[in-house]
Design brief:
single chain; 930 residues; alpha+beta; Immunoglobulin-like; Rossmann fold; 3 domains; 18 helices; 54 strands; 16% helix; elongated
């Protein structure tokens, strides 16, 4: 047991003046009158005591009278005779009155309040401080006690000044943010109890605790109070002591709790019968819960624990970082971005928008990975809260924030995988840290070994339309070829509690009446041309998709992304080539090789959509498996996830079980993004912005350096190019390639974009000592059927050059060859573009290449200077067959030999190596001639 000896520094009050005693004194047995007050004194210098008012007859005290060790009267009650701060007490029944036993002998009087008939021991009057309090001051909230000893009848009315058995703390709390509707405050001390149950000894004022108290006190108000810069003041009764203790304060509105900070008990501690004041000025903090946005906001959050409350910021879009993305198109500057003001949102409410789970052992179940009733919005701090069920459910959830008009402001994906930690499971791939599974998937490489196709399908993640943050359901099962059985075109059965969005799929054995998607393609999709008009702009399209995160978006008037503008969703009829490029900023990469995470990036905090180069590393060496491909070098598995086709309202899943479609942030073309492909690393073939591909996120922080990825065990030089490169081998000196050990990877008619798609499987697979890249002619000739800006041609060249450099090869970039005549094009095209237009674009492209190689320390092979005439055409002496202004003849190739070979020799020169056939050669593996 603990004992506390309290100081009887009692309240000083004015007692009633005593009548002058007679010479004989009062008669033995006469009634004794008492007067009393109840105050709590101030510990602070100059502060006034807090008085309490007595109420007539309602307030009753219990009295004990002793003489020596003998009790004369035990627990006799007296009632207040009048109302006021100082009152007289009388006995309602004269037979119970306390009287003087002897007129000339002193008696001791002990009293307590409030009276209880069951109390019979003046040394053990029950007293306590409770854990539930009101925050206001009432006499009956305390046990009061007093002692008046050695009193004589001649003294007249006996003063009884009562002291509270608890200490009092006057708390005032203010905030720099307004918080209305507080119903209670929770006060908690981590290292000490705040309450007690025990007894008080009326004779000496000591208190004894019979039970250990609680370290928490809840102060509840009759009416909600509002926290602001104007303090909220309330009182709490505390056990004595607690010097310097810290008390955590939490405000509770009934739905949400807010951590306000700490009150600190004064160093002199809490004294029984005394009060001190403390103030807490605060900035509001979110209630208890794991803050998913602690490392920064994002569009996807991972949860992995059962029975756990989580929260995230709902006051900002995406990652919340204001950015400006800038680039040029044919030298004309373009910029897109958003400010802090653009990113701020203030939801009026949040809703559970949709949820889905993979097939379980017993089939499909309509269960939600979070408790639907737990989703709520903190309207002050703008945090969303939700709780996972006690029995964890793997799957995915969509949560949307709405404005007062009921329109969606923003939405988030909750990715629920029990026990999963993508940081722990990540792998280092080249310069990147890569997730071990696709975004939204329930499994990584363990699904590769599954014998059950259902378990294999756990590796399928979400599908994303390029540049959008919002996911669409994974394929439901692992099924090769053809349409998925049972009407499950839309993938995992996805439920919505939002009644106006529900579709009836109860005709299917997997369906019910609350499905978000159905076989009605039009109801699954949102046609921008219909809703915004045929000439809609990119900004309008993006704003519209934010409002319909659950809808597949098409650039058409129905559910199909139409061929016009190459099956994109984001544009229908751009006004010009500058406007046509604006979409590339959506996932943060405007040059195809570097990226800064955008607000539309779907990856979790600290992760982003990869640029295409990551897949050059990951897919350099892989093994085919039953369900996908596996990289033994990086211990990573990629399933054959297929795609959602750009048409059919996104309802047609194709290639599931047969092909890999993974998004990249890389855009180096007016019309097409890149996607991952096992054969090429990345490709633009069969790649459409309006289709849906899966996602493999990488860490935002990317290493600036990289150990060489190759061994340089291939040819001395590998030449990547178009028909000019290819014919060099056939129309020039054939010995130029054989005697120098050069590989020729020229392919007729190919553009820079096509070369990116075969660079991995040809040049990097060859693992040469030197990579030579030359292209541009076919791009400028619009061989793909449309215009490509010189910046995009250059970005494709840059993409290849930097991959070769990272593999350890020396990099030489050749100039675009001169010409004024793209002779194979149509007469209409030639009439419009042949001549100065073509010649000038070649010059501008070569300027970009020249500046780049100087900045990077690469080598520039200047074919142009030795081949061009004064008009920018190929010199007539170099025309093939005397008519072809594009393809060099034998003499021209001899000139090109004279440009290239010394550059290769210089690039591969090692001062430690003697001349071939002469002095000893060191470092033979790398430097000897092949």
């Amino acid at each position: 047991m603990r004992k506390l000896f309290t100081s009887l520094l009692l309240l000083v009050t004015a007692a009633s003046c005593a009548d002058d005693p007679t010479t004989e004194g009062p008669a033995t047995g006469g009634d004794i009158r008492f007067s009393g007050s109840a105050k709590i004194t101030a510990m602070e210098s100059g502060a006034a005591p807090i008085p309490f008012t007595w109420e007539t007859d309602t307030d009753r005290i219990g009295l004990f009278s002793t003489k020596g060790d003998r009790t004369i009267f035990a627990n006799v009650y007296y009632a207040a005779q009048n109302m006021g701060e100082v009152v007289s007490f009388i006995s309602p029944a004269s037979k119970n009155s306390v009287v003087w036993e002897n007129a000339f002998e002193a008696q001791n009087f002990y009293a307590y309040y409030p009276y209880r008939s069951s109390f019979d021991d003046p040394t053990a009057i029950p007293a306590s401080v409770k854990a539930d309090q009101s925050g206001t001051l009432a006499k009956r909230d305390f046990v009061w006690y007093t002692a008046s000893e050695n009193r004589l009848p001649s003294e007249g009315e006996i003063p009884m000044d009562f002291q509270a058995a608890a200490g009092l703390l006057r708390c005032s709390v203010s905030s720099d943010q307004s918080l209305p509707g507080i119903r209670s405050f929770l006060l908690e001390c981590a290292d000490e109890t705040l309450t007690f149950d025990g007894t008080v000894n009326l004779k000496d004022g000591t208190m004894e605790w019979t039970e250990e108290g609680s370290n928490r006190i809840t102060v509840t108000f009759d009416r909600p109070v509002n926290l602001s810069a104007e303090p909220v003041t309330f009182y709490i009764a505390l056990k004595p002591g607690l010097a310097g203790r810290k008390i955590e304060v939490t405000a509770d509105t009934g739905k949400l709790q807010y951590s306000l900070g700490e009150l600190i008990v004064p160093e002199e501690g809490i004294h029984a019968g005394s009060w001190s004041s403390v103030h807490l000025g605060t900035s509001l903090q979110p209630r208890d819960g794991i803050n998913l946005s602690a490392q920064g906001p994002a569009n996807t959050y991972l949860v992995n624990k059962p029975g756990t409350t989580y929260c995230f910021r709902a006051d900002v879009k995406g990652n919340g970082v204001a950015r400006n993305y800038a680039w040029t198109v044919e030298g004309q500057p373009v910029s897109k971005g958003y400010t802090d003001a653009d990113l701020a949102i203030r939801p009026a409410e949040v809703k559970l928008l949709w949820y889905n789970t993979p097939m379980g052992e017993s089939g499909w179940e309509n269960v939600c990975p979070i408790d639907p009733e737990s989703v709520l919005l903190d309207p002050v701090l703008n945090y969303v809260y939700f709780t996972t069920p006690a029995e964890f459910v793997n799957g995915n959830v969509g949560i949307a924030a709405y404005d007062e008009a009921g329109e969606i402001l923003w939405s988030w994906n909750i990715w629920a995988v029990e026990g999963y930690d993508y940081d722990l499971e990540a792998r280092t791939v080249g310069r990147y840290t890569v997730m071990d599974r696709n975004l939204g998937a329930m499994a990584g490489k363990e699904a590769m070994q599954a014998s059950d196709p259902r378990e294999a399908a756990l590796a399928f993640g979400h599908y994303y339309q390029w540049g959008r943050k919002d996911p669409f359901p994974a394929a439901p099962t692992y099924e090769k070829g053809g349409e998925l059985a049972g009407g499950m075109k839309w993938g995992l059965p996805t439920h919505t509690p939002v009644k106006e969005l529900q579709q009836n799929c109860s005709q299917y054995d997997w369906g019910s009446s609350d499905m978000l998607y159905s076989a009605n393609l039009a109801s699954n999709a949102y046609g921008l041309a219909t809703n915004l008009g045929e000439g809609y702009k990119l900004d309008d399209a993006v704003a519209a998709t934010v409002k319909v995160p659950h809808k597949w978006v098409s650039n058409g008037s129905d559910n199909n992304c139409v061929a016009e503008n190459n099956y994109t969703w984001h544009q229908r009829k751009p006004a010009d080539n500058v406007e046509m490029t604006e979409w590339r900023y959506l996932w943060g990469s405007v040059d195809g090789s570097t990226s800064e995470k955008s607000i539309y990036d779907p990856c979790p905090p600290g992760w982003k959509v990869p640029t295409g180069d990551m897949y050059y590393y990951l897919l350099k060496e892989y093994e085919n498996t039953e369900y996908g491909v596996y990289s033994p070098k990086y211990d990573l598995y990629i399933p054959n996830n297929g795609q959602r086709q750009a048409g059919f309202g996104g309802s047609q899943l194709s290639g599931v079980g047969d092909a890999i479609f993974l998004s990249t942030a890389s855009v180096t073309d007016l019309h097409y993004p890149y996607r991952a492909n096992p054969d090429s690393g990345v490709t633009s073939w069969n790649t459409y912005g309006g289709a849906g591909y899966q996602m493999r996120c990488v860490k935002e922080e990317v290493s600036a350096t990289l150990a060489p990825q190759g061994k340089q065990s291939g040819h001395r030089a590998a030449l990547m190019g178009d028909s000019i490169t290819r014919t060099w081998r056939d129309r020039g000196r054939k010995e130029f390639f054989t005697e120098n050990n050069y590989a020729n990877f020229g392919v007729d008619g190919t553009t820079s974009q096509n070369m990116v798609g075969r660079f991995n499987s040809q040049v990097l697979a060859d693992d040469p000592l030197c990579a030579v890249i030359a292209c541009g002619t076919n791009d400028i000739a619009d061989n793909d059927g449309y215009f490509r800006p010189i910046e995009d041609i250059f970005n494709n060249i840059r993409f290849m050059a930097e991959r070769a450099d990272e593999y350890g090869a020396k990099v030489i970039i050749g100039s675009a060859a001169p010409t004024r005549d793209m002779w194979w094009q149509s007469e209409e095209w030639k009439a419009k573009y042949n001549g100065d237009y073509v010649a000038n674009r070649i010059v501008e492209l070569n300027k970009l290449i020249t500046a780049y190689v100087e900045a990077k320390g690469f080598v520039y092979a200047d074919y142009y200077s030795v081949l061009a005439d004064e008009t920018g055409d190929l010199k007539e002496a170099y025309w093939w067959n005397g008519t072809d202004h594009v393809h060099p003849n034998y003499d021209a190739f001899i000139q090109m030999e004279g440009v290239l070979k010394p550059l290769i020799d210089a690039a591969l020169y090692d001062p430690n190596v003697g001349s071939v056939g002469g002095n000893p050669i060191d470092d033979m593996d790398k430097w000897e001639w092949k």
